[in-house]
Amino acid sequence: MEKKELLVVDGLKQYFPIKGGFLGRTVNHVKAVDDISFTIHEGETVSIVGESGCGKSTTGRAILRLEEPTEGKVVFNGEDLTKLPKGEMRKHRKDLQIIFQDPYASINPRQTVSDVLNEAMEIQKVVPKKERRDRIIELLETVGLNAAQADRYPHEFSGGQRQRIGIARALSVNPKLIICDEAVSALDVSIQAQVLNLLDELQDEYNLTYLFISHDLGVVRHISDRVIVMYVGKIVEIGDKHSIFDNPKHPYTKALLSAIPVPDPDRERNHIVLRGDVPSPIDPPSGCRFHTRCPFAQEKCRVDVPELVRHDGMQEGHEAACHFVEEIERGEVKPKELQVTTF
Amino acid sequence: MVETILDVRDLRTSFYTDEGEVKAVDGVSFSVPKGKTIGIVGESGSGKSITSLSILRLLASNGKVVGGEVRFKGDNLLAYSEKKMRSLRGNKISMIFQEPMTSLNPVFTVGQQISETLIEHQGMSKKAAMAKSVDLLKLVGIPSPDKRVKQYPYELSGGMRQRVMIAIALACNPEILIADEPTTALDVTIQAQILGLIRDLQQRMGMSVVLITHDLGVVAETCDYVAVMYAGQVVEYSDVRTLFRKPKHPYTVGLLKSLPRPDEDQEKLIPIHGTVPSPLHMPVGCRFNPRCPAATDLCREKLPDLFDDGEGNQVRCWIYNEQWPGEKEVDVFGEERTARC
Questions:
Q1: Domain enclosing residue B132, as ranges
Q2: Residue ranges in chain A assigned as alpha helix (H)
Q3: Which of B199, B244, B268 comes nearest A343 by C-beta?
Q4: Total domain count for chain B?
Q5: What is the ipTM of this complex?
Q6: If contacts are CB pairs under 8 Å, which of residues 47-86 in chain A contact chain B?
Q7: Which chain B residues are closer than 8 Å to A278 by Cβ?
Q8: Residue A77: phi, psi to the nearest 5?
Q9: pLDDT, tens digit (0-9, with 9 covering 90-100), for B38-87
Q10: CATH superfamily to which A1-88+175-224 belongs
């Protein structure tokens, strides 16, 4: 059965102006997200991975219109969110919630947990006033806290517990899609596992859809159905989890995956070393944005922008934006200088 | 037998706060063999950073080493005068930190900051020190070092700043490099560059490395020996292969089972329930007992020592002692323990 499309992002661009000069005019733009498109189906978990500055968080914020997108469509449940007036958008935020990395910074320290949850329900008018207290207690129990903690303040909780409060707040308005922006990145592994399992269980229970934004590839492999790899504002590869992790095609994805240290001392360690740093999104490289660091780069890569294409030997839905996927695969395009390290 | 260059014995460090004495490090012992890399792993609050700061005696004013020994080539550093200590830091023992932006001075050029170490410890002239700085930048793989040497930290990327920190740390050919989460703030592709660089320089210069990290992947790939810390104590010390193949302490087992792996699929993560105890209210007995699925009355009453298994590996757990009342084979964190915690 074809799954229902819940969110369709089409040609999304997010440019931030850089003011400068004598008159404070806009002198340039940070092209944080530059023309990306993808679809999320109901009930699935899609992750966006990439390094700092690739535009993964900006994408999440643009979907919620926390920043107004410069261009493109964000179609949620058949309706283009970018066309809605502000007031209407607010009503729609009931369906799209976000959990941030640092729950301490995103929860008002002067509100008790019960106030925090109550406010969300008040704004979205999801539960009648009389039933709210019961709902709050139910929510706390759902996320593994208890009723006695309802009247405590955020500082009385540990990091993992605060993240549970963030999750409870997101759940309080019965959302369909939750964007998790580095939601477990600040947590220690033993606590991180608790929160990841919780997110997993909640997904089954409430048929939630997740857009998971993370730089931690271990977490991404664990939680995702599909993965989007971004590099300097563009999608370079998209596919189901196993295609991306076991059969990566884009040279950047390959380098990124090979760079992760694996918790196994006997594993063969060959890490592809990429030269230099990630280029600035203010003045991204021409053609393929990865060409300045790509060991396989050819003349064409400097000129033509590659499109996301499904090549031979790639699963349905697996696409990579590289001109030479097949040639690299067949060994016809060889790396110029492939530097490998073993730490 | 490899020569031991640094030997930490029963180190105890306390902080005196309004709420009372916080025993941040409480009886930590491990040794660093010459030319090897030892990893100190643990979660936040385990005392791993305080251990490294105690070794170099860089504690905040309300912190104090209250017991134990830190022997560097036989000499107890805790008995050194401040002056003697100063001539050692950045010279024989160097340290790099997680956030290279906050450890570099924003108002001095990169060259001035590398030179400072050389002038202080090796009595070089300004000019010679600057020339050596350029060499060092080249050594750590910074392109066009003669230009970079005149730049300020804000002009460099995160990865480059960490390279500068490494250049400063290595300026005097230290015998030990203490690296406290050196790549935590960096992206993975840059992390690979920096870890590769540290490994490469270590082999060339023959120094020992103490790597403090929370990342078990980094440990598996870079360390020869590992000390796992929990609540201010070392709970397990072993060579890296044994630690990952046959972890002994229930905490280590739990840590490995709760780790989402980038290299293989897992049905379900198995978390350790509960949270790290507050250092103001440490549990009686084994500090892990409230979170340990195998805990017995013995664990709740008496703190176990670091027991040696006769092969140089140590574990702080009653299961490995003849006093253990339960079965010999204990399957901690078995598959059935997947319920929500």
A1: 102-171
A2: 56-63, 86-92, 103-106, 113-124, 129-142, 159-171, 189-206, 217-223, 241-246, 251-259, 299-303, 325-329
A3: B199
A4: 1
A5: 0.86
A6: 51-52
A7: 187
A8: 55, 35
A9: 999 998 889 999 999 999 999 999 999 999 999 999 999 999 999 999 99
A10: P-loop containing nucleotide triphosphate hydrolases (3.40.50.300)
